[in-house]
Write a structure and sequence with these properties.
The complex is a heterodimer of chains A (320) and B (351). Chain A has 320 residues and is an all-alpha fold. Helix content of chain A is 79%, strand content 2%. Chain A is globular and about 80 Å long. In chain B, 64% of the residues lie in helices and 4% in strands. Classes of the chains: A mainly alpha (320), B mainly alpha (351).
Chain lengths: 320, 351
């Protein structure tokens, strides 16, 4: 296990390095415009551009520029220039809103997805099975751009059942926190429920053909015990990796759009507003910190997977 | 798929070519055919944009009508009222003018914009998917055929892209290039160009096709017909071109279809955040983003383009599924074996 973790750690560092170099190129080398002008924004004074050029060392060699940029990002000194605001502070301030949204949605999609998947595997071919398939098709086809406006219009503006967007901190009024988040949670979770249900269902149908399931039945265990202790438990293992990938991808993807649609003042909305104003430093900060977080989270999910399924880590060290 | 005792034995399927058989299987899949028809309708809808603009609406997608009035049932009405609110859907009350209403303070015809925006969305989605497929097939063939260090480099790169938060990357690149344009050696692209979203989407979608292609090439390489060609002295290029590539066609067709759907969602997301298609061009994602602000009074401004995105993506996904069932010969064989004398039938739709 230790060996697996060390190998994974080396891979992690390599990926983080690749990510940082790639984003460095995106912000400084790829654009046709002077990078200082890029950072300053559209209607900026020449003085500001000159100051930024000096501050970021854009006249130095590329490796030196890379080190300056990473230094700024890692020490949290990245600032946006209209007005001069520290990016990391802005991001940290918004972490609770983003986590409230994504963790809540994840709980919902895991709960309903796994429940539907379990029930439809137990009764494969039944109506629940068909419902799950419809859900999965909807999940890959219905964009948040449609779900959120429809939910907002009918359940908030028209009927007033839910508040029309915004975020209330949990530390203030927990009830307000909850009612403000219900629609965004379902918007995000809706897309995943079908996918998770389908994955669990097909895993379970595979596991049901294993010898140890036959053995468990032969021992005379009740059907419920066979399904929960032997089939479900082993079918959940691949879900761990999938969840690791999807949770990160959601925070760095659909959650940004969802926050913007519901005006939840989280990290995604911060990036969305910055991009609407063509302000580069916040986008740079969110992209770099976000990418680091996602890559780290995926690595953690991998380690958890290896811990739960010995075949992964044994195969890994046998190949080494 | 119940056996029909009244049915006569099928004509020998061997008499038909594999493509004709696949076509027949596809046509028997009612769900796939319905959604294919829907997709064709959507394409016709966006292609008809100039016709509608010239002959019905009498205005262009970017024409400003802030201070104009239209005649509705003999009565003059402002396109944009004094409070800056746009007129709602008129349907046919004004002879098709402002069918879906106006889009905001600028008073542009929403229906015309929806049709032109759809052109952009489809154009970006299809171009990106074709570019993805071209890159992915080339990389998959190289990696799978030559193995060794070529494969190691390509496979690792694909793995890294696969594990990245691609949307966040797309957003970062999209914004950076939307501000400054792109200059990469001799390639220069201006900041509002559609090539920027197309390129971003294409590059980040490559692993989704290249990985399965690579896997297939690896197993095809070990096949006897490839060995036979090799023994006859075929060059690698000839082997790849006339032995391996034809066997990848069905995978390529299916994945390209599904990738168009994903590319359109990607484009909508980027454009929604201002990192994709740039004004004055319009796209469905961009229209949702500008329509959300008026959701309370004019819900269709956000919901109509959202609905169009969904219908297009849904139809492409269903057609892709149908194509997979129709083109995969193994699924046909399986059904034949299970059904005995029952003619080969496409599996029932997913609904």
């Amino acid at each position: 296990m230790a060996r697996f973790i060390v190998r994974r750690l080396i891979g992690l560092i390599a990926v983080l390095f690749a990510v940082s170099v790639l984003l460095f190129l995106v912000f400084t080398v790829l654009p046709a415009q002077n990078p200082a002008q890029q950072l300053a924004g559209k209607n900026s004074t020449p003085e500001l551009v000159a100051a930024i050029e000096e501050e970021w060392g854009f006249n130095d060699s590329l490796p030196a520029q890379y080190l300056t940029m990473m230094g700024k990002v890692l020490t949290g000194e990245l600032v946006s220039y209209r007005p001069r605001v520290n990016v990391l502070e802005q991001i940290v301030e918004r972490i609770p809103a983003t986590l409230s949204l994504s963790i809540g949605a994840a709980v919902l999609w895991l709960f309903f997805g796994l429940l539907l998947g379990y029930l439809s595997a137990v009764r494969a071919g039944g109506w629940l099975d068909k419902l799950l398939t419809a859900f999965a098709v909807a999940g890959i086809s219905v964009p948040v751009f449609l779900i959120a406006p429809v939910l907002l219009y009918f359940l908030s503006y028209k009927t007033g059942i839910f508040p029309g967007g915004g975020y209330e901190p949990l530390t203030g009024d927990p009830w307000q926190w909850l009612t403000h988040l219900i629609l965004p949670w379902f918007t995000l979770a809706f897309l995943m429920i079908g996918i998770y249900g389908r994955v669990l269902r097909s895993n379970m149908l595979d596991v049901m053909n294993e010898d140890y399931v036959r053995t468990a039945r032969a021992k005379g265990l009740s059907e419920r015990r066979v399904m929960t202790r032997h089939v479900l438990r082993n079918s959940l293992i691949p879900i761990v990796t999938l969840f690791g990938l999807d949770f990160g991808a959601t925070i760095a993807g659909t959650a940004i759009i969802t926050e913007s649609l519901y005006s939840i003042d989280g990290i995604g909305n911060y990036a969305a507003q910055a991009s609407a104003n063509f302000e580069l430093p916040p986008v740079m900060g969110v992209a770099l910190y976000g990418a680091f977080f996602v890559v780290l989270f995926n690595a953690l999910a991998d380690v958890a997977y290896a811990y739960l399924d010995p075949r992964v880590r044994l195969g890994e060290s046998a190949a080494a | 798929m119940s056996p029909d005792p009244g049915q006569t034995a099928p004509t020998a399927p061997a008499a038909r070519g594999p493509w004709a058989q696949a076509g027949r299987r596809f046509l028997r899949n009612r769900t796939a055919v319905v959604f294919a028809a829907l997709f064709v309708l959507i394409v016709l809808f966006v292609l008809a944009a100039p016709l509608w603009a010239d002959h019905v609406a009498g205005t262009g997608p970017n024409a400003n009508h802030t201070v104009d009035k239209i005649e509705v049932g003999g009565e003059e009405r402002d396109v944009v009222n004094v409070e800056g609110l746009p007129i709602g859907p008129q349907w046919f009350a004004a002879d098709g003018k402002f069918f879906l209403g106006a889009d905001g303070r600028l008073g542009r015809d929403e229906m015309v914009r929806l049709m032109y925006g759809g052109r952009t969305s489809l154009l970006v989605g299809i171009s990106a998917a074709l570019l993805t497929t071209a890159i992915a097939v080339a990389l998959g063939l190289l990696a799978g055929y030559f193995r060794g260090w070529v494969d190691a480099v390509i496979a690792r790169t694909l793995d890294v892209i696969w594990s990245l938060p691609v949307f966040l990357f797309g957003l970062a690149i999209g914004i950076s290039l939307a501000i400054g344009g792109l200059q990469l050696g001799p390639i220069e692209v201006s900041s509002g160009s559609l090539w920027i979203p197309i390129g971003i989407i294409a590059v980040f979608s490559v692993p989704y096709i290249a990985r399965p292609i690579r896997g297939q090439v690896i197993s095809l390489r070990e096949m006897e017909f490839v060995e036979a060609a090799l023994a006859q002295g075929a060059t690698p290029l000839r082997l790849i071109w006339s032995e391996i590539l034809p066997n990848l066609t069905s995978t390529i067709i299916v994945f390209t279809t599904l990738t168009i759907a994903n590319s359109m969602l990607f484009e909508a997301g980027l454009s929604f955040l201002g990192a994709g298609v740039q004004p004055p061009n319009s796209s469905w994602g961009l229209m949702v983003s500008s329509g959300v602000g008026l959701l309370n009074t004019q819900p269709l401004l956000a919901i109509a383009p959202g609905l169009m995105i969904m219908l297009t993506v849904l139809s492409l996904n269903m057609v892709g599924d149908g194509l997979r069932d129709a083109l995969d010969p193994r699924s046909g064989v399986e059904i034949e074996a299970r059904g005995g004398t029952v003619p080969v039938e496409a599996p029932e739709g997913t609904f």
